[in-house]
Amino acid sequence: MLPMNKQHSSNANWTLTTHDHGWQISPPESVDPNDYQFYLEWCAGQSFSPAIALTQITDLVLSFAFLSTLVNDQVDALAHPILLVKNKHASSSLIRIACRHLAMSATANFRDYGGYHTQCGRQVRWGKLFRTGHMGEMNDRDIAVLSQLNIQAVCDFRRPEEAAKQPSLLPQGLLPTAIPISPGSAIDLFSAISDQAIDEAKIDAFMQDINHDLVINHQPSYRAMFDQLLASTDAGSIIHCSAGKDRTGFGGLLMLSALGVSDDDIMADYLLTNQYVKIEREIARWTANYGPDQTETSAADSDKVKAAREAIKEQQGEFNHQALAVILKVKSSYLQTAIDTIKQEFGNNIAYLEQQIGLSSAELSRLKAAYLYD
Predict the structure, then answer these.
(1) How confident is the model at residue 107 (pLDDT cuts 50, 70, 90)?
(2) pLDDT, mean of residues 280-291
(3) Fewer CB within 10 Å, N or C, the chain?
(4) Listed residues 79, 99, 119: the one ending a domain
């Protein structure tokens, strides 16, 4: 195994992004890419040990055709190659890079948590921890990608009525673990998106209240998430809710904090939702599932949702799509409320994980051993 650089460096800013014909490797500013060698560690379900040296790269582009020949398999934009970048003049200086976002056909916010550096200079493993929105519209190619990624744990934070409306479509034999989380007031939510006048301050306050509630009232649910991560250390895991932003965002805060990632990097990851959530598609889904034409209660509905549906009936209102577009995005103030609440009430993220989630020092060490590069 090649050694990991224990120090933060400009190398950490290397990125890999998809384009029409493959992937573009982008170096940090002021870095000469000719000083670096690239190796392929993983691609399209195949792991390579030792990693394959990539000696025929033109203009720092990895084409689909080139990688298809290299791995002897058909490669497309969802192959999720993981590259090792090594400085030719400093053998101990290396990092791994991969695409943050996987452009699934039906799930817009599917992202890999890998690549972030921890406070001790290690890096979160790519291809192990993922976040997304609901997976109720996955097509055959998307499902095949989950198999390639060796996903063995799926933590579903949706309420029963959400999951019943759009059951997850997963590889055969893979069952989601239901960890229902219902923060905040459903009546307040439906009121905010039914008002014809947009009150963004009201929406912001509602979203901040949700994040405060996640910290104070849902510790057992997030303990269940960590139980799944601890039980699936040899495979890939997904955490998700409906849009993949609030309940999932707080889960990501806890997960990355346990691994030693800084609040700044956690916040940057959280805000990526605004790049990848397809607002118009989410508005259509919300309207179809919860709009005025769908206000009849069902056996799967929670008491909160039943009360909210009755409130909508009384208002006889339509969803305000502009207000819904606001609520489907994220702002730094939302997650910052969770971070500030943890600090004010419990001291710091690790103290919260130990005292409120119940993670032991041994469990934190196991998580780091499993989900960080050496």
Answers:
(1) confident
(2) 81
(3) N
(4) 99
